[in-house]
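Input structure tokens:
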């Protein structure tokens, strides 16, 4: 497994946000993580990419409540649960965060270059930029526009484009379609399929269960911080209790 999460739990104060989660992503897979709002999907992605540990360090010296982390995370053959977030990025485990967060005051091209900041090889940067522009031609058209003035869909694409600039071995994408019009949503999903077919391993968090179940190799369902089901989309959809109770279908 490229990513292996074993018995991971996360507490914010007394609240257990992640409850003994074990899951994994194999090289080349497109794995989805679905579940109701507040299930802990973003927290799990932030745990995997070292951001919860970073937040824990930040808040240790403040009056905030205590954050506690347990369990093991292995990426590319090495334990990472104690590795700092910036080093996790360097190893190729990248998060495109939810609610599209490009730096709003910067141009599109500058935002993309931030994604490539760890790459020294100029040719490699050019190659990645070409790839991003091919996937998202609108970013090329608007490369000198200030990011904050892009439409919601374009900012979402920029967030994914920026993540792609850093040579991800595993790209975690948090709710890329949320808040977009249906046509744009379809386009975002199409692009994610293309990213996957480029050979990039993807862990996708989404609300739009029917669509992701069709594209993902495997899926995990998270509810109240627990993985309550795992498998191929058609198999999961056969389970009526799961559909009704956890997927709202
Ligand atoms: N920094 C935080 N401090 C305390 N509680 C949090 C924090 N971030 C998220 N939560 C809570 O953790 C739960 C899971 O949130 P989240 O991971 O954002 O869920 P999802 O992404 O599945 O909607 C929610 O109940 C949320 O209110
Ligand atoms: Mg979320």
């Amino acid at each position: 497994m490229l990513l292996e999460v074993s018995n991971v739990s996360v507490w914010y104060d007394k609240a257990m946000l992640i409850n003994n989660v074990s899951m994994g992503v194999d090289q080349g897979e497109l794995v989805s993580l679905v579940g109701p709002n507040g299930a802990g999907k973003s927290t799990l992605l932030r745990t995997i990419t070292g951001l919860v540990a970073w937040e824990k360090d930040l808040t240790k010296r403040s009056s905030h409540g205590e954050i506690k982390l347990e369990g093991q995370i292995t990426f590319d053959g090495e334990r990472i649960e104690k590795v700092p977030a910036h080093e996790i990025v360097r190893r190729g485990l990248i998060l495109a965060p939810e609610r599209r967060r490009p730096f709003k005051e910067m141009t599109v091209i500058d935002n993309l270059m931030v994604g490539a900041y760890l790459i020294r090889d100029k040719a490699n940067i050019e190659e990645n930029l070409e790839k991003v522009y091919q996937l998202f031609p609108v970013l090329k058209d608007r490369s000198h526009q200030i990011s904050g003035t892009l439409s919601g869909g374009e900012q979402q694409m920029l967030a994914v484009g920026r993540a792609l600039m850093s040579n991800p071995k595993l790209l975690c994408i948090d709710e890329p379609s949320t808040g977009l019009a249906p046509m744009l949503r379809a386009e975002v999903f199409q692009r994610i399929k293309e990213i996957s077919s480029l050979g990039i391993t993807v862990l996708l968090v989404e609300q739009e269960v029917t669509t992701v179940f069709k594209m993902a190799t495997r899926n995990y369902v998270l509810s109240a911080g627990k993985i309550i089901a795992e498998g191929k989309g058609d198999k999961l959809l056969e389970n009526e209790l799961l559909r009704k109770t956890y997927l709202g279908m």
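The chain has a mean pLDDT of 92. Residues 182-197 form the longest helix (16 residues).
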